[in-house]
Amino acid sequence: MEKKALIIVDVQNDFCPGGALAAPEGDKVVPVINKLVDQFDYVLASKDWHPADTVHFQKWPVHCVAGTPGAEFHPDLRTDKIDQVLLKGTGNKDDGYSAFEATNVDLAEWLRAHEVDEVYVTGLTTEYCVKSTALDAVKNGFRTFVIRDAVRPVNPADEEAAYRDMEAAGIQVVTSSDVLQPA
Ligand code: VGL
Ligand code: ZN
Question: Which CATH class for the 3-179 domain?
Fold first, then answer.
């Protein structure tokens, strides 16, 4: 049980500038994540993947409808190292903020089956899906890290509160330079 997994949360067109629910600078996470993918035993990537009629769209603008261009990964994201895609928010009553709520794979079981003990969370957005995923990783017993320069909030005013909640839960906030080994 000593493998490390990188989880790339929702680096999809709709969460990037020009998208339906854009995080300002959301696209800035892409080059950072592209450098990180080589440093992990496993790479997993979630997609927010909603039905058009979900109740989730009573709280949010329509975004990441399954199969639409807005739900695709950002075109510059390196996908060659992704071992498992996680589809979440797929029900019409389900927000699916956490990648641990993916409906195509049980993420906690997948990580245990692959002997992962450390989970590093990156992607979009800091205060919703990144935070929910990281909190669930802790609840499931994984040593959990959030890579600060590889995440962005949808609302920058809520960013610091999100970090406080994560640190209070025992999540370690690091930067990509802490994780990257010299080549
Ligand atoms: C997200 C709001 C709604 C996220 C998803 O990926 O953080 N935020 N759906
Ligand atoms: Zn959503």
Answer: alpha beta
Residue written as token pair 């989730």: 56
Q: Could you read off the pLDDT of 30-65 as tens digits, one per residue?
A: 999 999 999 999 999 999 999 999 999 999 999 999
Q: Which two tokens stand for residue 149?
A: 């320069």
CA-CA distance, 73 to 78, in Å (whole number)? 9
Catalytic pick from 64, 129, 131, 136?
A: 129
Which ligand 1 atom is nearest residue 59's CA? Answer: 3
What is the residue extent of each domain of the chain? Answer: 3-179
pLDDT tens digits along 133-166: 999 999 999 999 999 999 999 999 999 999 999 9
- Is 35 assigned a catalytic role? no
The secondary element (H helix, E strand) that includes residue 45 is strand 42-48
Overall average pLDDT of the 65-78 stretch: 98
If you take atom 8 of ligand 1, which residue's CA is the nearest one?
128
